Amino acid sequence: MQERRFPAIWRSIMPNPKRRHSKSRRGKRRAHDFLPTVTPGICPNCQNPKPPHQACAKCGYYKGKQVMEGEEEY
Fold first, then answer.
1. What's the pLDDT score for residue 55?
2. What is the C-alpha R_g of the chain?
3. What is the DSSP letter of 66?
4. What is d(CA 68, CA 59) in angstroms, rounded to the nearest whole number?
5. With left for phi above 0 and alpha for psi between -120 and 50, is residue 53 left, alpha or beta?
6. What is the pLDDT along the chain (74 residues), one digit of tens a residue?
7. Could you say which of 33, 44, 55, 60 would form a disulfide bridge with 70 (CB–CB 3.0 to 4.6 Å)?
């Protein structure tokens, strides 16, 4: 079977959009580009800042239980 070829002029015209996208559609697409940064919480065990819903990297505690070994040795 022979491959179908398009004229060179069609290749430069084809990928362009037909209509302009509205400002609201552009804004919906960009909505996730400007999400706020997450503020760190305080670990109740060692009082160091830590990301929310994650085990503390310093002591290894999460929700009052030790789930991993932390950096500090007691």
1. 93
2. 27
3. E
4. 8
5. left
6. 566 776 666 666 667 788 999 999 999 999 988 888 889 999 999 999 999 999 999 999 999 899 988 776 55
7. 60
The pLDDT of residue 71 is 77
Q: Which amino acid is at 48?
A: N
Exposed / middle / buried, residue 59 (Cβ in 10 Å: 0-12, 13-18, 19+): buried
- Asked if residue 31 lies in contact with residue 23, where contact means CB atoms within 8 angstroms, the answer is no
Give dist(CA 56, CA 71) in Å, integer. 10
Which letter does DSSP use for residue 35 in this model?
Answer: P
52, 38 in Cβ contact below 8 A? Answer: yes
What are the φ/ψ torsions at residue 62 (nearest 5 degrees)?
A: -145, 125
